[in-house]
Amino acid sequence: MSSLKIAIQKSGRLNEKSVELLKNCGLTFENYKSSLISSVSNFPLEILFLRDDDIPEYVQDGIADLGIVGENVISETGVNVHFLQRLGFGKCTLKIAIPNESELVQINDLEGRAIATSYPNILKKYLSDNQINATIRTISGSVEISPGLGLSDAICDIVSTGGTLKSNGLKPFADVMSSEAILIGKNGIEKEEAVKELMQRIQSVLKAKE
Ligand code: ATP
Ligand code: ZN
User: What family does this chain come from, according to its entry (predicted)?
Assistant: First the structure.
């Protein structure tokens, strides 16, 4: 029987918890930091270590059968994949934030303003749901410095503790989406016996944590 492939983040905020979850499922594997792939010795599974942004498409295209990635990344890439299980870690909220001294009061005040983000698709949908016309400035990192540079009136970014906002003179303005790590699969993979077995193990691990 050929192995299933699961894609997890190579390094970053979801890596450690993803590895821990798989180990708690009784899977034995080497957590090679330098290699892209690791075989599980006691289950028909291979682990691919990837950038989180690449995971949804790898799963959609079937290069990986399963993946662990933040809901925010799934929504932003707009892929067609199967949601198998919420995993309870990597919790965060995508928020719009504004400078402390901003005169904006309600979300409609964003009309005609510029908002910097690394999540243009999610933001676009949020603005259109709220019938707001604003300019979206897509930047790939350090979004929170953009208002200070005069590049935007607001930002839309991931917030977990709010510390980064604070240290950049910003305050939360509106919640756009909440997110946590999710186990996704390519469509139809949920019918595979090995996937059912793995899901059962994951659910027991999550239950034991409650
Ligand atoms: P990669 O190198 O894999 O592209 P990255 O820098 O894009 O990594 P990380 O910062 O490691 O991503 O975040 C991975 C995921 O962790 C996010 O997409 C989000 O779902 C979740 N997350 C939880 N808390 C936070 C936070 N405070 N800031 C950013 N992401 C967070
Ligand atoms: Zn990323």
Answer: Belongs to the ATP phosphoribosyltransferase family. Long subfamily.
Residues 102 and 163 in one domain: yes
What pLDDT is stored for residue 1 in this prediction? 55
In this predicted structure, what is the pLDDT of residue 35?
A: 75
Query: Which contiguous run of DSSP H or E holds residue 201?
Result: helix 193-209
Q: Which ranges of the chain have pLDDT less than 50?
A: none
State in Å: Cα 50 to ligand 2 middle: 9
62 and 128 share one domain: no
Take atom 1 of ligand 1 and give the residue whose Cα is closest.
51
The Å distance, Cα 158 to ligand 1 centre, comes to 8
Measured CA to CA, the distance from residue 78 to residue 30 in angstroms comes to 32
CA 103 / ligand 1 centre spacing (Å): 30
In this prediction, residue 175 carries a pLDDT of 98
Tell whether 96 and 168 lie within a shared domain: yes
Same domain? 164 vs 192: no
My answer on whether 96 and 140 are in the same domain is yes
**Could you give the number of structural domains in the chain?**
2
Residue nearest to atom 13 of ligand 1 (CA): 13
The domain in which residue 78 lies consists of 4-90+180-209
Give yes or no for a contact between 138 and 118, defined as CB atoms under 8 angstroms apart.
yes
Q: Which residue lies with its CA nearest to atom 26 of ligand 1?
A: 160
Angle at 146 between CA 138 and CA 75, to 5 degrees: 35
